[in-house]
Amino acid sequence: MNATQIDRTQIESLVRQAIQQSLGGGPSVAADGSASPPGWVNGKPNLRVSISARHVHLTDEHVETLFGPGAVLEPEKPLYQDGFYAAKQTVMVVGPRRRMLPSVRVLGPTRSASQVELAFTDSISLGIDAPVRHSGKIDDTPGCVLVGPAGTVQLDRGVIRAARHVHMNFADADFYGVADGDMMQLKITSNDCSTVFENLLVRADKAAKLEVHIDTDEGNACHLDRASKVELTKSGCSCKA
């Protein structure tokens, strides 16, 4: 398989596996000694719903421009998905008319294209008409200026409102009867503000753990922090898993 045939999902899976191996990680083990799929508890998927706050992805080149020659991302906190982390570094994101967000966290590892992911209120604050896009789909999107301690980067594109999605491994996908690229539905039950989110894109690969990503505005709208129940179902299906 050559590089042009590897899509972004496959690349993420390879990155996860490589970093896990370098850290000495391995598959989880069930009570009977058999290997469990990543993230499973008591023989079934363990659903996690996370708020993905505004953040930035950078290329190696832009890391050096913003933080100095030879700079690399320094992991500060691991994310739920193995091999991914919040870096120690932050950048200022500057929009039109010098509107800015002062300290936006950089996530690692680095990517082939820099990208800024915002919630709707963030984009309003910056004065940027950021479209809803799935990560990596940055054609015909607006840009911004990134400011770091060592320099600035003018992005001609890459500012998006990240579309809601669900990470899962292939065993999770079989459990729910879905495949990579399908759409799912998430119901959040909270006191007086229960919410149903449609159009969750399935992003399935070998190493992922079951996790829904919604943005800050969506998390606040459904009062996720006080939710009493979360239900993930295949779109168009009345059953509940």
Topology, pairings included?
Elements: H1 8-22, E1 28-29, E2 35-36, E3 48-51, E4 55-57, H2 60-67, E5 75-78, E6 85-94, E7 100-108, E8 115-118, H3 120-126, E9 132-133, E10 144-147, E11 152-155, E12 159-162, E13 165-168, H4 170-176, E14 183-189, E15 195-204, E16 211-214, H5 216-221, E17 229-234
Parallel strand pairs: 3-16, 4-7, 8-12, 9-12, 13-15
Antiparallel strand pairs: 1-2, 4-8, 5-6, 6-7, 6-10, 10-11, 13-16, 14-15, 14-17
In a few lines, what is going on in this structure?
The protein is α/β, with parallel strands linked by helices.
Task: Describe this protein's structure.
It is globular, with a radius of gyration of 19 Å. The protein starts with 7 loop residues before the first helix and ends in a 7-residue tail after the last strand. It is of the alpha/beta class and 241 residues long. The chain has 2 domains: 25-50 and 164-234, Beta Barrel (Barwin-like endoglucanases), CATH 2.40.40; 58-162, no CATH class. The relative contact order is 0.18. The longest helix has 15 residues, at 8-22. The strands form 3 sheets. Strands 4, 5, 6, 7, 8, 9, 10, 11 and 12 form a 9-stranded mixed sheet that branches. Strands 3-16-13-15-14-17 form a 6-stranded mixed sheet. A two-stranded antiparallel sheet has the order 1-2. 18% of the residues lie in helices and 34% in strands.
